Structures are given as C-alpha cells and as structure tokens.
C-alpha cells in the first residue's frame, strides 16, 4: 500500500487552513504538512492546532525561497516522505474528508503518475462560473497547443496527487503556472494515459480581483507557451533530484 503525504501551501490563510487540515487527517494514517510562506497572520498556529506539521518554507533546503505558490509545493515535495504527494489549497471552504483517499486510489495502477481533481467551480452564489483563468486562458491554449490534454477539466486545480518520485524528477514553476507545467511535463514524459481524473463534486474558495487574475493568466500562458517550445523566460526550480 502506498504511503501518503498531504502538502498544503499556505500564505495568510488562517480562516480556512484548520478545516482543510482536519479534513485531510480524517483520511489517515498519513502525513499532513503545511508549508507556511512567511504568513503574518495565525496560519501556522491554526494549522498546528488542527494537527498538521507546520514547516516554514525557509526551514526546507538551504537556499532562499522564491516568491510563488510553486516554490511552496516544490519545498513540500522535498520535505514529504510519502510515496504519493497530495496537494491541497489552504483557502478551500469545500474540502471534505474522503477526498484525499479518492485522489490516491488510482495509484494502485502502477502506470498512473498524476491524478487531477475534477469539480464544478462555484462563483459567489452561483453553482458554476468560477475558474475564469482556467476557462479563458488555460483551456483554449491547451486545446490549440496540447490537444491531447483538452479532456482535463481542471488543468489549474490545486487539488491533485503525484508520485513523489515523479515530482522529484520534474521542474516546478515558481508561480501559478506550476499546475499546468506539471500536467504537461507528466504527459510528455509518461504519456497522457498516465494522468487520471477523479470527480470531487464542487469547489469553493475566495475569488480574486481581475487585476490578480490577469497576473495569474500571464504566468499560466507563459508556462504553456514555454512548454510548447517558445523562448519565454520562466522562473522555475529544477528537479529536486539534482540537488
């Protein structure tokens, strides 16, 4: 049976991180790591009280961190000990017990390297309409440049699982392009059939401003274009296995 580490990147997510940790721990036995990117609120305190092992990202590896979510994930993989690493966003209000086990289940097949969550994105009081960067940037570019991945319904979703050996062998984009970068890289190295999807229902989280979404869209588009062979500068960490 595969051992499991849950990695939760967190930056000032005190209102929600505890419930995410508790939901993950309910699927135990497993390791739950909260990677705290220098939060200035009570994120670390709330996560520890809920039962997580809290690591400041500066404690992991003897190099200074680069700003960005991908950096926290990369350091989380370095700290994790499970055969399977499950990534979960700290700002979720809809993460429930059972979801970690659902994401891990497909790894009974040795040919699976990555499992993406599939869900409906809510928007305010509406049951659909969320995921604007996904629908307006990521999916159109993937359909054109990587059509074999056009069936992936949540390419930017923050809930997914990956073999730790696979994660250690891949680069991690430092910013919000990390998810789509890993998706493309896994497909390129192991084939599209190495990626599975699991329906987790619906997903709710805090929505960001159009200005913030525009910045995210820039990084996502740059990542997809760079992976397609375009000469675009992209800040990323090299695979952990070379360190």
TrEMBL record:
Gene Ontology MF terms: glycosyltransferase activity
Cofactor requirements of the protein: Mn(2+); Mg(2+)
Catalyzed chemical reaction(s): (2R)-3-phosphoglycerate + UDP-alpha-D-glucose = (2R)-2-O-(alpha-D-glucopyranosyl)-3-phospho-glycerate + UDP + H(+); an NDP-alpha-D-glucose + (2R)-3-phosphoglycerate = (2R)-2-O-(alpha-D-glucopyranosyl)-3-phospho-glycerate + a ribonucleoside 5'-diphosphate + H(+)
InterPro entries found in the cross-reference section: Glyco_trans_2-like (IPR001173), Glycosyltransferase_2 (IPR050256), Nucleotide-diphossugar_trans (IPR029044)
UniProt xrefs under Gene3D superfamilies: Spore Coat Polysaccharide Biosynthesis Protein SpsA, Chain A
Keyword Transmembrane helix: no
Enzyme Commission code: 2.4.1.266
Family from the record: Belongs to the glycosyltransferase 2 family.
Protein name, entry field: Glucosyl-3-phosphoglycerate synthase
Annotated source species: Corynebacterium crudilactis
């Amino acid at each position: 049976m595969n051992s499991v580490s849950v990695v939760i990147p967190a930056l000032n997510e005190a209102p929600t991180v505890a419930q995410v940790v508790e939901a993950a721990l309910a699927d135990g036995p497993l390791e739950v790591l909260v990677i705290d990117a220098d939060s200035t609120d009570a994120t670390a305190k709330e996560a520890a009280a809920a039962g997580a092992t809290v690591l400041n990202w500066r404690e992991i590896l003897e190099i200074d961190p680069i700003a960005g979510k991908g950096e926290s994930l990369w350091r989380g993989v370095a700290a994790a000990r499970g055969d399977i690493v499950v990534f979960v966003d700290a700002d979720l209000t809809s993460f429930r017990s059972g979801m970690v086990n659902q994401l891990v289940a497909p790894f009974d097949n040795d040919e699976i390297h990555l499992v993406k969550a599939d869900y409906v994105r809510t928007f305010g009081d509406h049951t659909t309409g969320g995921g604007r960067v996904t629908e307006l940037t990521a999916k159109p570019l993937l359909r054109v440049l990587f059509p074999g991945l056009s069936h992936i319904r949540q390419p930017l979703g923050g809930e997914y699982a990956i073999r730790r050996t696979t994660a250690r062998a891949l680069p991690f984009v430092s910013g919000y392009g990390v998810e789509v970068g890993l998706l493309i890289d896994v497909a390129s190295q192991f084939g599209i059939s190495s990626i599975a999807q699991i329906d987790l229902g619906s997903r709710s989280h805090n929505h960001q401003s159009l200005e913030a979404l525009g910045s995210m869209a820039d990084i996502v588009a740059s990542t997809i274009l760079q992976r397609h062979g375009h000469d675009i500068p992209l800040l990323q960490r090299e695979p952990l296995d070379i360190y």
